[in-house]
Amino acid sequence: MKHNLYQAILARRSVRRYEKRRLDAETLAQVQTIISEVKPLLPDNHFEALMRDVAPGEDLVQTMGGYGRLVSPPHYLAPFGQGETHILTDVGYRVEQIAVRLVALGVGTCYVGSLRREDAVRALFGLPETARIGAFLSFGYPATGLRGRAVNAMVRRAARATNKLPAERIFFHETFDNPATPPAELVQLVEAARHSPSAGNAQPWRLLWRDGTLYLFVQIKNRMYGISGLGGYCLFDGGICMSNVALALEALGMAGRWELLAGTEPDLPDHPTDLQALARLPLA
């Protein structure tokens, strides 16, 4: 097993306070390599991740339209995608690969959601009108001092990011009337899904295990997203969850690849009306 990769999935936390020093040239080159090697859900979709240094005195949260506070992040990525199908899900899938692999390098990360302000962000970076930007990703060395650790822990608690739903709340066997404990062969995959970050810690994913296939559904409405659903965060977060599971498959040496769903498949399992079918993962 690629122990470091699987541990990075479980260990990733939002870092809100960073050391002021920038990453060295070798590490930044590794970041560029990670970006260039991300795997797509749909190869026809276009994806880029612009890498920028944070200017002295720049308030990254205010610039990006996020919430909370970021203290001295040295760098950030502005990832965006263009395409006709599943674009927000694909962007989330690719960005989470970057985030987890940065953690494996000892680099901290934090998502700053941007779906509320996509028009402003497109204008800020001169992006095409068709570009979708689910979230920015700040990164750098996490602050290791007592104050830095305290700030990071406090922000995570305030955002309820430490409150992950138990497996029995997100995993179902055969039907959605049957919440269950995952079987032994799926425990590590479900744990990877549970540890996925999401906007407002909404955790919209619901996993259904039926006939050797793992189905991923997402909640269309979630109180943590608000009444409007925040413009598609469930799709972006669903892509993040899919990415964690795919990285876990890689780390565990298991075969399997997500298949995206349109929601009209004749063999689609029955599901509550507040859930949207996103993908399935045959494992038999």
Structural commentary:
The chain is of the alpha+beta class and 284 residues long. It folds into two domains: 156 residues, NADH Oxidase (3-Layer(aba) Sandwich), CATH 3.40.109.10; 116 residues, NADH Oxidase (3-Layer(aba) Sandwich), CATH 3.40.109. The protein has nine helices and nine strands. The strands form two sheets. The protein has a five-stranded mixed beta sheet. The protein has a four-stranded antiparallel beta sheet with strand order 1-2-4-3, covered by helices on one side. Helix 1 packs across helix 4, helix 1 runs antiparallel to helix 9 and helix 8 packs antiparallel against helix 9. The two termini are 20 Å apart.
Count of distinct structural domains: 2
Please give the count of helices: 9
SS elements, strand count: 9
Give the neighbour order of strands across the main sheet.
5-6-7-9-8
The coarse silhouette is globular
| Average pLDDT level | 89
SSE series: HHEHEHEHEHHEHEEHEE
Instruction: Specify Rg, calculated over alpha carbons.
Output: 18 Å
Helix percentage: 25-40%
Find the CATH topology of the largest domain. NADH Oxidase
Reported CATH architecture of the largest domain = 3-Layer(aba) Sandwich
Largest sheet: 5 strands, mixed
CATH 4th-level superfamily of the largest domain: NADH Oxidase
Through-space gap between termini: 20 Å
Unreliable spans? 148-153
Q: Any idea of the CATH class of the largest domain? A: Alpha Beta
Beta strand %: 15-25%
Structural class, from helix and strand content? alpha+beta
